[in-house]
Design a protein that fits this description.
four-stranded antiparallel beta sheet, alpha/beta, 14 strands, ten-stranded mixed beta sheet
Length: 407
């Protein structure tokens, strides 16, 4: 019998816990670092996010054990609490709690451990469960792409204004209140916002996990990078078009861009942060994309994220991109790199999430949202459906929008 079935096997269901968001992070001097976020839903079920990466859907009783774990309760307190709420002996309560605690903490501190086999739990498929809020929200702080004010060509539209620092802080607070554990700052180029460090710090103070998607150029300034790290940035995604300077510069439209991006990437790799390199597999770099992945492995990059353009002119060219994507994947596997599919980038017709997990597009976007610089909410970047505005509209109207799952 699975662990979750045993935990479920109580006689009298208790009144569900009230909806809440809980967070635990190990102290800075702990030998093994991890973070747990627990969101308790209205019906008492829970969503436990381990290191902003592994999502476990828990029934009511397992959620109560997880709540006590996140709050730092010892076995005696757990036994008293559970026996008051359920018809179960203290010895059984202690045993189940100990089992769940040990398995979750091992999952949190062990690389490449499969939760499906290790936890021995009935676990919902990724993105499949209905929840009260997304697992992650991607925040486009600006659509400006460079210092000249040029706009990102992938932006859905020109926005009338960018939210102020105080407004973005209000947004972060609201997202936390509804149960969002993880945000990624993107753009445009988010490092063009002078308040980025302040916003990262605010997310950290709330309890959120935060990431950054950048072209890497501003990370050349080591003091700026150190400011982001000290503010609490948890992970970093740098976009690199190619390991060949001339190909990269041509694709990004900036002479000398490769040298600037590489200087920022090397600084990031020397810092205390998890780094992912995002590579768009396009016609311009398709012939050498596998070589780029090998180059990144030699640099010490631990993970790569791959995507393809959303618009491809012909089936023949689509085939070239798919072949290049497959070659890049194979090289990543051979060189021991982690492949990141659930990235903060536009979903495309050849959707890496679908290729890796067999998920339909509507499943993949079901548990994410994307905020534009003026606060408008989309199901995901590149999907032309406005669900509302995060500062003006009720959360329920946004999350339960009738068209959200039709895209």
């Amino acid at each position: 019998m699975s662990l979750l079935n045993r935990i479920r096997d109580f006689f009298t269901p208790a009144q569900p816990l009230p909806p809440q968001m809980l967070h635990y992070q190990t102290p800075p001097d702990a030998e093994q670092q991890y973070r747990l976020h627990l969101r308790v839903e209205k019906d008492g079920r829970g969503l436990l996010v381990v290191n902003a990466a592994t999502v476990l859907h828990l029934n009511q009783t397992a959620t109560e054990y997880a709540r006590l774990l996140v709050q730092g309760a010892d076995e005696e307190e757990v036994a008293r609490t559970i026996t008051r709420r359920y018809r179960v002996r203290e010895e059984r309560a202690r045993s189940d709690f100990r089992d769940l605690r040990d398995r979750i903490l091992t999952l949190a501190t062990t690389v490449d451990l499969s939760p499906d086999t290790y936890l021995d739990m009935e676990r919902a498929e990724p993105f499949s469960a209905d929840t009260s809020a997304p697992y992650r929200v991607d925040i486009a702080l600006t659509y400006r792409a460079d210092e000249s004010g040029a706009l990102d060509p992938e932006a859905r539209r020109r926005v009338d204004r960018e939210l102020t620092t105080a407004e973005w802080q209000q947004v972060l607070g609201r997202l936390w209140e509804v149960g969002v554990p993880h945000v990624v700052f993107t753009g445009g180029e988010p490092t063009l916002r002078e308040d980025l460090v302040e916003l990262v710090r605010h997310a950290e103070e709330i309890g959120m996990v935060s990431g950054l998607l950048t072209d890497g150029r501003r990370l050349r300034d080591r003091a700026y990078l150190d400011g982001l790290l000290l503010a609490g940035l948890d992970h970093l995604q740098v976009t690199l078009a190619s390991h060949l300077p001339e190909v990269h510069d041509r694709m990004v439209g900036r002479s000398g861009g490769w040298g600037e991006a590489m200087a920022g990437l090397r600084n990031a790799l020397a810092g205390d942060i998890y780094v992912v390199v995002h590579q768009v597999v396009a016609l311009e770099n398709a012939a050498t994309v596998a070589e780029t992945v090998a180059y990144l492995a030699d640099l010490g990059v631990p993970a790569v994220a791959l995507s393809v353009p959303s618009k491809v002119p012909s089936p023949e060219e689509q085939g070239r991109l798919e072949a290049a994507l497959n070659a890049a994947q194979e090289t990543a596997h051979q060189r021991g790199l982690t492949l990141i599919w659930d990235l903060a980038a536009p979903y495309s017709r050849v959707n890496p999430v679908e290729l890796e997990a067999g998920l339909a597009r509507e499943q993949a976007v079901r548990q994410h949202l994307y905020l534009e610089p003026d606060g408008d909410v989309l199901p995901a970047q590149g999907l032309n459906l406005v669900l509302g505005n995060i500062l003006r509209d009720p959360w329920e109207a946004i999350w339960e929008h009738p068209d959200r799952r039709k895209e």
